[in-house]
Sequence to fold (701 residues):
Amino acid sequence: MPSHNTTPVLLQPAPPAPAATPVLWPEDGRVRAVVETVLPAVDAGRFAVKTIAGEPITVTAHCLTDGHDALRVLLVWRPEGDAQATEVPMQAVGNDEWQASFVPPTPGRYRYTVIAWVDAFDSWRRDMARRVDAQDIRIAARVGAMEIAAAALRATGKDSAALVAWAQALEDSAVSAAAMAEDSAGEAHVKALKELALDSHYAALMERYPDRRLAAHYPQELPLVADRELARYSTWYELFPRSTSPTPGVHGTFRDVRARLPAIAAMGFDVLYFPPIHPIGRVQRKGQNNALVAKPGDVGSPWAIGSDEGGHKSIQPELGTAEDFRTLVQEARSAGLEVALDIAFQCAPDHPYVKEHPDWFRWRPDGTVQYAENPPKKYQDIYPFNFECDDWQGLWTELRSVFAHWIGEGVRIFRVDNPHTKAFAFWEWVIADIQSEHPEVLFLSEAFTRPKVMHGLAKRGFTQSYTYYTWRNTKEELIEYFTELAHGPGKDYFRPNVWPNTPDILHEHLQGGEPAVFMSRLVLAATLSASYGIYGPAYELMEHLPREPGSEEYLHSEKYQIRHWELDRPGNLASFMAHVNRIRRENPALQRNEGLRFLPLDNNALIAYAKRSADGSNLVVTVVNLDAHHTQSGWVNLPASWVNAEGQEAAPWQMHDQLSHQRFIWQGDWHFVQLDPHRMPAHVFVVRRRVRSEQDFDYFE
Fold:
């Protein structure tokens, strides 16, 4: 038999029960309205939603109450810093959701929230409209008179007197109706009583004096940033000023750039973006093709900033003077272009900051400064700032002054190099601080990095963001990624700016040099995204040779040497780019992202999508052949119900191809398309609906 442990068990006394946590009373338990959710909101209001000044933003609130009483809901908004708020009535749209819109008038920061309350008068009036029993109507009228009399106490002047008179009339009419016999005269009196109770003029008067003592307030004001229109829709052209001289081998100047302004504007660009224009370091200067040792005459990388001539607030002397730069900015603006300047917060070893503020850098045990690297890439000519240094406030203040300096020189757009390698807290602080004084300033984040990092930077203030477009080439990749950009959770704060190429990135897709690839990638960028950019003249000249097989670096990269571009080289894409950009300007549907819808198409070598303008009047359908070598055809689904008004689905419509100027008549839901990439790799259709003219014949508007 198994043995049993007979050791006595000592029973321990039970620990005392914890003291009960007192239940807190609500501030006012009579508040019956509930505001559960307010949208849009980014991370529950931690970060700002983004919109465009002068355009309406629609706010949705989930508001409810117990029982069947009526709610009144208001959207409340104000400019940040203003005590005075504007209230906008919200309308019920079903399922306890309410909506209203407001228009932030100017660029800047705003706040919005929602309040709601049970409206006894609205509940009474709604129920009165349903009542049919005479006795119910008489009693309800007296109840309503009490509500109206209470409102009269909240009103003033003539309004108060009118409400008092209405309440008294209801009371008197209800009493006299109760004394009348149940005959036709009594029925007529009750009918008149109900009409008096439901009088729309008096009801409108009551709406001005609601009882809001028991209103529920959403617990926070949500932040909103309103930018100018260029934040939503922009077309960027990047060039190196030092490569603009008409004479081969000669360093370009700002004067040379000025001579190019008409041609760049004629191509339809509205932002002219320069890499850093500051003095370039001499210590550890890189040579051509990223050689570690520079040869005499090598100009180095513009991103290796700083030398004896100055730092981030100075100009490379060969480019010209500060006055030359200011003149360039002004002339560009006159040509319809804004100059965007690259801000790269890093230093060459001989930058003045290294001597003046050695504590702003990370020093290694051997007494040298840690240069920038992203293994296996090494940037021996660049020292990154140490954002964990003890003098971080001094560092932040100085870096902010760099933006302030160039704003003073007329720059209002900054492309920020590698922001993901600097402290997130710094960006949140500096962008908000700059925009509090200059709300028109825009910031583009250059961050080809992890998705959450890209989104984190956008949340912290960047106006626009680079994307993964360069590496999205198949139909499935494009559909998945641009659906996310247009309709995913980031749509309220992440504004994509897509680039087919950059000075750093020559994607293998472009390395074959086929014109159809360059053309199709440009059309995709220009029609999928409201903002896009190209690095030129490399793009219009279809520069396509990599430094070595498998590399995304350009051979003879302009990052390390001056290039002389033959801008009139036969076969260049300048006129094609101008044509595409003109299509963008003429079609509001292409100037937004939220209207994007991909269309079913039975050939994976073809991709099709539609964009509709905010008011619905402009519908653009783009079809692109992703095969640069072969003609592809297929059937695309564009439902007639998308195009024609209800009941007119059978009517044909015209598809006007803006690229080839061809016109096609479509009807029904499925439509045949065919594209030869050697002629034109894309259609950009504008839908023309059939209408009847005053001369009684059909035409397409």
Summary: Residues 157-179 form the longest helix (23 residues). Confidence is low (pLDDT under 50) at residues 1-10, 692-700.
